[in-house]
Amino acid sequence: LARHNRELEVLMKHRTLNDEALSYYHKHTAEIEIIRHDRSIEPIVFPVPQLCEFLTVEKKQKVFLTCEQDEQGSKVKDFF
């Protein structure tokens, strides 16, 4: 939201993660970028499923290391 609201952007730059609401948002959301057909980049913010909190560091690392990361569209097919 800070990208679209100057006042919020200023507040976010001076924020601390001690703020309960911002801390919750930071912990429970993630962001990816999608390249659209017109070559524009669209950031997508999404909630991280609670189930992800139970993944071990080893499992997260395995997904990161085995997921194809070099071609457009290749990342998604590795999850199916």
* Low-confidence spans: none
Distance between the termini: 31 Å
Principal-axis shape equals flat
How many individual β-strands?
Answer: 2
Structural class: alpha+beta
Let me know the largest β-sheet: 2 strands, antiparallel
SSE run: HHEEHH
Helix content: 25-40%
Give the integer mean of the pLDDT values.
78
Q: How many domains comprise the coordinates?
A: 2
Helix tally equals 4
| Radius of gyration, taken over Cα atoms and rounded to an integer in Å | 16 Å
Arrangement of strands in the largest sheet: 1-2
The fraction of residues in strands falls at 15-25%
Helix-strand layout with pairing:
Blueprint: H1 6-13, H2 20-28, E1 29-35, E2 41-47, H3 57-66, H4 74-77
Structure description:
The chain has 80 residues and is of the alpha+beta class. The chain contains 4 helices and 2 strands. The chain has a two-stranded antiparallel ribbon. The model has no long low-confidence stretch (mean pLDDT 78).
Comma- or semicolon-separated keywords:
80 residues, alpha+beta, 4 helices, 2 strands, 18% strand
In short:
Helix content is 39%, strand content 18%.
